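2 proteins. here.
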Amino acid sequence: MSALPQGDIRLLETEVAQGLLGSTIPARMAYLGSDGTPRVVGTWFHWNGEELVMPTFLAAPHVPRPAARLRALQRNPYVAITIDTEQFPPHVLQLRGQVTITEIEGLAPEYVAAAHHYMGEPTATEYLAQIDQPGTRMARIALRPTWVGVLDFESRMPGVMAGQQS
C-alpha cells in the first residue's frame, strides 16, 4: 500500500495505521477554539473500524463543566488528528474530517472500551465504577476520516523529505 497517495482513506489499512490505531498513544486533536484560535487536546480514543471516537464528559461527579471543545466543535466541526510515536524512526497517522457529536446518557460504550484499553482491566473497572453515577452524561465525538496520511520515515516520508514541492 506504499503506492497509495497521502489523503487516501485506504491508508487506514496499512500496518503503521493499524498499529497506531491499536496503541495506547493518545490522539491529539486540533480544532479551532470559540475565539477562532487553534487548539490541540490530547484524548483517549476508540477506533471501531469506521470512526475514531473520542468521548468526553458533559456532566459527571468529577466534572465541574462540559469540555470547552464541545461548543467550539459544534460551531466548526473540522478537525485534524495525529497519533504518533516518539521512537526513531517515528510513525505518524494523520486524520482529517468533520466530527459529529452525539450526547449519551451515562458512559459512552467507546469510553468504557478506551478506559479498559488505556488503563488495563482492574484499574479501569474501579475507575468506571466511581464515575458511572446518576447524572453522568457524555458527548460522543466521532470522526469518520475523509483524509488519511501515514508516515513511517522509511517507505513513506513527508513530501519535503521525499523531494516533493510543498
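next one coming up
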Amino acid sequence: AACRQLIPGSRFLTGLTTPVSDPPSWLALWTTQDTVVTPPDSGRLEGALSVSVQSVCPGVRVAHSALPVDPTVTRIVLAALGAGPLTAPDPGVC
C-alpha cells in the first residue's frame, strides 16, 4: 500500500495539504527465478523503474528468499541510492 501511495499523481500525494512536487523515485527489483511470486514479473511496480536482477546481471541466480541478502542485489540497491535521479542499474555492479 505504501508503494502505491507514493506513485506520482496518486490520490494520497495529491491530497496532501502541500502537494509533493517531486515525489520519490522507486526501483522495483525482482528475480526471474522467483517461485514464490508468480509469475516472477509480478514484482514490477507501475510508476517505478522495474528491472529483473538477471536483466542487469544475466548469470546471477537468486531466489525470492535470497533477494534481501544477495550481494549482487545489495550492490544494485546501493548503486541506486543517492541524491541524483534514479537510473537503470549498470552491469558494472555485477
